Amino acid sequence: MIPYILQGIVFGFAAAVQPGPLQAYIILQTLKHGWRRTIVLAIVPLLSDMPIIAVVVFVLAAIPNLWVIALRVIGGAFLLHLAASAVRSVRNAPEETDATEGAQPRGLPQAVLINLLNPNPYLFWGLVTGPILIVGWKQNPAFGIGLIAAFYLVLIFFNAVIILVVSSARRLNLRFRRLLVILSAGGLAVFGVYQLWMGIAGLFHG
Q1: Cα torsion for 168, 169, 174, 177, to the nearest 10°?
Q2: Closest to 29 measured CA to CA, from 110, 113, 107
Q3: Residues 82-107, buried b or exposed e (16+ Cβ, 10 A)?
Q4: So what's the pLDDT on residue 170?
Q5: What gap in Å lies between CA 52 and CA 74, rounded to an integer?
Q6: Is residue 1 a contact partner of residue 142, using CB atoms and an 8 Å limit?
Q7: Going by C-beta distance under 8 Å and a sequence separation of 6 or more, which residues neighbour residue 134?
Q8: Alpha-carbon torsion 179, 117, 202, 17, what sign?
Q9: Helix (H, G, I), strand (E, B) or coil at 104
Q10: Environment class of residue 206 by beta-carbon count within 10 Å: exposed (0-12), middle (13-18) or buried (19+)?
Q11: CA dihedral angle for residue 101, residue 106, residue 109, residue 112, rounded to 10 degrees
């Protein structure tokens, strides 16, 4: 059990600190809406990865590579759309943000969609964690459960830490907050272009 829990901790930490589309989106939403509206986004990987794990472990091995390419193209276009929307929102950023702190969060469905359209979780679970999970589950289902539990506890914890840290920066002056929003939007755009490039390249080489 212990080796599987340790692997879950290591993989969860690596997933949390590695820059990616979801992390950029979480930072963007925190800057725009504050930690109270955004903290729920810390659990996005748990919500989005359950179907991903099922697909990868039981189905992905039999699916042609074109499916991954399609995810890259669709996900890249979606990230570019979010980046453009974020840049447009900078002009309309309110001077006071406290009024939005208690509002109902709207970013959860978008964040889940970002992760579902991101091929990285599919590749990660298909090439790295998935095989470990299968081996552990065959030995004892508790091993597989321990791996998944440790992975997502660590990942959710560090996502929450990121949100709280970014929220502290958000309380700086409005001009600086707008600059951070633009930088986060730039991160979304970079990942969007990268996914589009990899998808298009895959079409020509596939």
Answers
A1: -130
A2: 107
A3: bbeebeeeeeeeeeebeeeeeeeeeb
A4: 63
A5: 16
A6: yes
A7: 57, 144
A8: positive
A9: coil
A10: exposed
A11: -30
pLDDT at 102: 43
Mean pLDDT per 10-residue run, the chain (206 residues)?
Answer: 88 79 86 87 90 76 69 79 78 50 61 84 77 83 92 93 83 67 78 82 74
Amino acid, single-letter form, for residue 49: D
Tell me the longest C-alpha to C-alpha distance in the chain: 57
Q: What are phi and psi of 149, to 5 degrees?
A: -65, -45
DSSP 105: P
Q: How many helices (H) and strands (E) does the chain have?
A: 10, 0
Overall residue count recorded for the chain in this entry: 206
Closest C-alpha among 32, 25, 24 to residue 89: 32
Give the pLDDT confidence score for residue 106 in this predicted structure.
Answer: 55
CA 194/CA 7 separation, integer angstroms: 29
Q: What is the DSSP letter of 126?
A: I
Asked whether 105 and 33 are in contact (CB, 8 A), the reply is: yes
Q: Which amino acid is at 14?
A: A
pTM (two decimals): 0.72
Token pair for 23: 């992390």
CB 41 within 8 A of CB 160: no
The residue ranges of every structural domain in the chain are 2-92+105-205
